[in-house]
Every structure is written in C-alpha cells, then in structure tokens.
C-alpha cells in the first residue's frame, strides 16, 4: 500500500506531525498530485476508439521557498507523484508514451504558495507498435510469426515449467494479431478458456501455465516533439497528500 492509498483510507494521523507543520504555508504535495490528474485529463488525446494518449513528462515551477520545503520529502515525493500519474492513467484507460517523469523547478517569478505545471501534449499522429508484456519485459512483435516457448529456439523465451518448448505462435500482419496454440501439453488460455486460435485485442491476456502474456499497442513517438504549455494553479494549502 502506498502513502497516497493510506491517506485515502482515512489515516490522517500521518499528516498531523512534522510534515503538516512544515508545509502549513506552502504548496502541498496533494496539490501537485491533484494537478497531475487534471493535466492528464485535459491533455489526453484520443487517437482512435481504443487508444487515448496522455502526457508523461511534467514540470512544476515553484517559488524557491516552496521548492526547498518540498525537497525535504526527498525521493518519496518523486515516487508518489510518478505513481499518481501511472495509476490515474491506468484507471482512465490512458496510455503513456514513456515512463512518468516529474521535475520540480525553482522560478523566481512564481509567487510563494502557487505553482505552474507544464506538460508535453502528445501528438495524435504517433506510430503504434504491437508488443507483448511478459515477465516484466516488453517485447515488440515483428511482422510475421513470433514463437513463444521454453525452448532455446523460441523467439520469446518463457521460464514457466508448464510451457512447452514451442508453446504459442503469434502472427502479426501490422493490423491483426492471431494467437495459435502449437499443440502444447498444458494448453493456452484466454479469459480462463483454452483455445486453439484466437484474435488478440488491446490488453488481451493469454496465460501459459501461471504466466500472463499481455498484448498491447504501444505508442512509439518521441514525447519531446510536443510543446510545453503552462497550466497556472494556485495553492489551496491542503493537508499532506489528503484526498489525492
């Protein structure tokens, strides 16, 4: 359970100590979290019925005093803000072009207790790649046939002992992905049902033994191609992380 989850569940005693006293008159972490969620919603771009892109690079401009206060939290603040971005994107069905990046920057023109948030608005003309998420790694699918299995000859190797040497075949023609079980001993499943052949859709999950393989369309454009535009936001002096 993360810090934000704890606060959301009413564990407000965590904010009544040193952090609450420290941040009484400055920008609060909860305000940054809320601003990130709004920014994701405002800048999200629908590229087709199933795919919505959202920004992944964010810069907060703050008064020097506010930045100094926030930096006292250290790495925890960065970890929590990045988690806010990835969790909100997942909940809303947004896709990020890359990992969430959060920067806090001092700005002499920003009044104390306020901040500006800037983000890259993703382009709706990005390219998409078919990928397979497996055992913590993302594998791009080549055009043609990809073999998945436990054997050394497989294009994508899987460590699950329930996998056959050549267990599953995925045919990708640039538009459609077809998964075919290769007569494996233990079979392949999707939504709990064994199959011989099935068309994969975004976020389809195929199981080989206990191992999930998730088919995705992943944006491949350079996020730096977008422009950074500020979203002025005023501090509400909220409690530490409350309600984020």
Summarize the structure.
The protein is α+β, with helices and mostly antiparallel strands. The chain has helices at 3-8, 18-22, 29-43, 64-71, 75-92; strands spanning 45-48, 51-54, 57-62, 95-96, 101-106, 114-120, 128-134, 137-140, 144-149, 156-157, 168-172, 177-181, 188-190, 193-194, 197-200, 205-208, 211-219, 228-234.
Please characterize this protein's 3D structure:
The strands form four sheets. A six-stranded antiparallel β-sheet has the order 8-7-17-16-13-14, with no helix packed on it. Strands 10-9-11-12-15 form a five-stranded mixed β-sheet, with no helix packed on it. It is α+β, with helices and mostly antiparallel strands. The protein contains five helices and 18 strands. Residues 5-24, 222-229 and 231-243 have low confidence and may be disordered. The chain is elongated and about 65 Å long. A hairpin with a 2-residue loop joins β16 (205-208) and β17.
Overall mean pLDDT score? 80
Please state the overall shape, judged from the principal axes of the Cα atoms. Answer: elongated
The helix fraction, in percent, is: 10-25%
Order of helices and strands: HHHEEEHHEEEEEEEEEEEEEEE
Report the portion of residues in β strands.
35-45%
Number of helices: 5
The low-confidence runs, each spanning 5 or more residues with pLDDT under 50, are: 5-24, 222-229, 231-243
- Report the structural category: alpha+beta
Largest sheet: 6 strands, antiparallel
Instruction: Say how many strands there are.
Output: 18
What is the terminal separation in angstroms? 14 Å
How much is the radius of gyration in Å? 22 Å
Strand order of the largest sheet: 8-7-17-16-13-14
């Amino acid at each position: 359970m993360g810090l934000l989850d704890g606060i959301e569940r009413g564990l407000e005693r965590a904010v009544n100590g040193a952090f609450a006293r420290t941040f009484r008159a400055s920008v609060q972490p909860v305000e940054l979290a809320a601003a990130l969620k709004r920014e994701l919603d405002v800048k999200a771009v629908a590229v087709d019925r199933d795919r919505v892109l959202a920004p992944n690079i964010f810069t907060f401009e703050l008064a020097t005093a506010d930045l100094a206060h926030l930096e006292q939290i250290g790495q925890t603040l960065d970890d929590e803000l990045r988690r806010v971005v990835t969790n909100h994107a997942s909940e809303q069905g947004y896709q990020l072009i890359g990992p969430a990046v959060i920067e806090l920057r001092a700005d002499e023109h920003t009044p104390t207790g306020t901040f500006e948030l800037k983000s890259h608005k993703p382009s709706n003309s990005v390219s998409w790649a078919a990928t397979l998420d497996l055992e913590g790694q993302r594998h791009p699918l080549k055009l043609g046939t990809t073999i998945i299995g436990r054997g050394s000859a497989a294009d994508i190797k899987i460590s699950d002992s329930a996998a056959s040497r050549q267990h599953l075949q995925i045919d990708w023609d640039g538009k459609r992905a077809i998964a075919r079980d290769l007569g494996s001993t233990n079979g392949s499943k999707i939504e709990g049902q064994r199959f011989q052949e099935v068309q994969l859709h975004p976020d389809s999950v195929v199981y080989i033994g206990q191992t999930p393989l998730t088919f995705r369309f992943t944006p491949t454009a350079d996020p730096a191609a977008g422009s950074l535009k500020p979203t002025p936001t005023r501090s509400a002096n909220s409690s530490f992380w409350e309600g984020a």
